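Technical note accompanying the year-one report. For the benefit of new consortium partners, we illustrate the data format agreed upon in the data management plan: each record pairs a sequence with a structure-token string. No post-processing was applied to the example shown here.
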Amino acid sequence: MREDVACGLALAIARNGPLACLEHAETSTLDSTLGHASHLVADLIRQTPDVQARDRIARSIAKVAEPLTFAFECLRCMRPTAGLAQEEQVLSEEGDVAAHSALVDRIRSQAAAAPLHRSFGREARGLYCLWAQQSAAEVASNLQQALQSDPAEADALLDSYVGEPRESVAGATLDAGISRETYDALAQLIDPRVVVAALEQVHGPDLGAGDFYRRDVPGAVQQRAHQFLWLYRSGEHDTAADSAGAMDTGKAP
């Protein structure tokens, strides 16, 4: 395929990402049309022999691909891979940084209009992570403002970070809940105390006590809130124990 045709096709696919996202909610990213389309975009760009030209096309993809999550997937497929020779990479290191910087500009603009977790649900996690790599303080400020303006955003944020529901042996649908990994991922974006304050405003101060799995907590939303608060308070106890141990040994915590 001619270089100009390959580039034009890559940009056309990027602009029409919604067509590739139709069944994404029902399958994994790698097996979805979205995943195959993002790999196709990367393969088409790879057909351009000059790396600087590939870098320019990747920046264009970052600016025009719709939706933002498709732009994210396209760039993920083009990222330099450890162990590959430079001539085998799709983008140069500088081109990769520039393309992701262009995507972060779009993420920042989208987040100013509406919370990413509202716009993209569970696909927002990658967008938040990429944005935080460039400016963690901006992400923390954006989320804090959203939760303080509307505490109910805390429930939506937790929902966007849990895994997909799974089916039990008996055929019932089980909510993934809040794991320690989920808690830690959110704590890297925003001070957990801000999330806790919002959850307590919505659900009251009684959640977070007792067992991690409480049978008297109704519904998945309340269960997630309880689990986040439980993990937060458990961490407080761990910190207090560490501090007490450090004082006993004469060491700083």
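Partners are asked to follow this layout when depositing records. The radius of gyration is 22 Å.
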